[in-house]
């Protein structure tokens, strides 16, 4: 095992009704007023917004509410929210939604403690050193944002989908109530499953030092995701399946899968961020297109690991068969696996490759991924 430091400061509150305790969680950190951030107005119709705000008011916590966060969240809303937080001297943020809301909340929290443009954190012009506290109530499981210090936001003017991060951005408390996720639509359940796969497989297929413990943990996460996704497609109200899916999502990107690992990178995310930034493809949908193509392009670099993946996940001995089985499963659950299925034409290859190369340079991966190589990977998904 490679030397490692494990650090995670997020407290998880898991189970039915946990969202109704949000006032208590916020109060325990000495926070007296917050921004309640959310996406769709649906949370007002289904009563979630009312339960959250009642809990806050029950602990004498005042709030300002801001909705409108979208899938592939945008920097313009983040900037507007930073102004609201500063104007009203808000001390924290309660994010109610999925990864897009949680990611936006982290960016807002960093911007609240910064005098410059919050986009500076995304382009490496500034480092996140401080942030106001973030609390999350998750209504969708996919990104693991509830228990990690990262966030991804799109600059709609420059069409750059970039990330920020830093220890100050770990949520203080995250409430995970699987019942709140029962209304996730089948397409977004599929996209969520793919996102979890990509979080795991980016690591699984790039790490140079990869302990057996970590490999087995990832394989268990992925088999859990496959099993529970299949159950939830048939019965969205299965609480146990929903709960296991949610916890697998959290475990995939809360630091546990990085224990003892060395030399990993997030290759498929680098490419998908360009796709999403340019064409607003849902994150998981873009990853469903990119991941199998990327796996085909690198399978000969780590043949034993690909053979292990095929055997552990699908009972196959051949690496190519493992990739094919994964691709078929993505299709079976309703995720796109080609450009055409994602609503893209072959003409999108070069713009995506160019945009992704910009991310590669920012992530110091440009030697490994010149623009032409990225284009060649993308062409494997043009059918």
TrEMBL record:
Pfam families: ADH_Fe_C, Fe-ADH
Residues of the Fe-containing alcohol dehydrogenase-like C-terminal domain: 190-380
Gene3D superfamilies (alphabetical): 3.40.50.1970, Dehydroquinate synthase-like - alpha domain (1.20.1090.10)
Record-level Gene Ontology MF annotations: alcohol dehydrogenase (NADP+) activity; butanol dehydrogenase (NAD+) activity; metal ion binding; methylglyoxal reductase (NADPH) (acetol producing) activity
UniProt domain Alcohol dehydrogenase iron-type/glycerol dehydrogenase GldA: residue ranges: 10-178
UniProt KW keywords: Oxidoreductase
One GO term describing the cellular component: cytosol
Oxidoreductase as UniProt keyword: yes
Keyword Nucleotide-binding appears in the UniProt entry: no
Top-level taxon in the UniProt lineage: Bacteria
Family: Belongs to the iron-containing alcohol dehydrogenase family.
The protein's name: Iron-containing alcohol dehydrogenase
Organism: Trichlorobacter lovleyi (strain ATCC BAA-1151 / DSM 17278 / SZ)
Lineage, opening ranks: Bacteria, Pseudomonadati, Thermodesulfobacteriota, Desulfuromonadia, Geobacterales
């Amino acid at each position: 095992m490679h030397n490692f430091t494990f650090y995670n400061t997020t407290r998880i509150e898991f189970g039915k009704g946990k969202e109704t305790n949000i006032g208590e969680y916020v109060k325990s950190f000495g926070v007296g007023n917050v921004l309640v951030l959310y996406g769709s107005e649906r949370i007002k119709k289904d009563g979630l917004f009312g339960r959250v705000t009642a809990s806050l008011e029950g602990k004498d916590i005042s709030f300002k509410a801001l909705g409108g966060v979208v899938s592939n969240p945008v920097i313009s809303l983040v900037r507007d929210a930073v102004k609201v937080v500063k104007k009203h001297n808000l001390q924290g943020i309660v994010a109610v939604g999925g990864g897009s809301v949680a990611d936006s909340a982290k960016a807002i929290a960093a911007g609240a403690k910064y005098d410059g443009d919050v986009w500076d954190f995304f382009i490496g012009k500034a480092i996140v050193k401080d942030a106001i506290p973030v609390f999350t109530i998750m209504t969708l499981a996919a990104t693991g944002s509830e228990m990690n210090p990262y966030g991804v936001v799109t600059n709609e003017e420059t069409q750059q989908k970039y990330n920020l991060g830093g220890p100050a951005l770990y949520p203080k408390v995250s409430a995970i109530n699987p019942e709140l996720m029962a209304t996730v639509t089948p397409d977004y359940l599929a996209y969520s499953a793919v996102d979890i796969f990509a979080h795991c497989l980016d690591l699984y297929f790039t790490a140079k030092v990869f302990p057996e413990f970590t490999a087995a943990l990832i394989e268990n996460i992925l088999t859990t995701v496959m099993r529970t996704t299949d159950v939830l497609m048939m019965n969205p109200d299965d609480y146990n399946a929903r709960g296991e899916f949610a916890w697998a999502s959290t475990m995939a990107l809360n630091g546990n899968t990085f224990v003892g690992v060395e030399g990993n990178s997030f290759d498929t995310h680098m490419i998908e961020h360009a796709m999403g930034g340019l064409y607003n493809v849902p994150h998981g949908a873009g990853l469903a297109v990119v991941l199998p193509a990327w796996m085909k392009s690198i399978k000969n670099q780590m043949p034993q690991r690909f053979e292990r993946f095929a055997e552990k996940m699908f009972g196959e001995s051949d690496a190519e068969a493992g990739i094919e089985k994964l691709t078929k499963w993505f299709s079976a659950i309703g995720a796109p696996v080609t450009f055409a299925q994602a609503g893209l034409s072959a003409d999108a290859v070069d713009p995506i490759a160019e945009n992704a190369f910009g991310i590669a340079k920012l992530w110091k991966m440009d030697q490994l991924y010149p623009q032409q190589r990225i284009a060649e990977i993308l062409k494997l998904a043009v059918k």
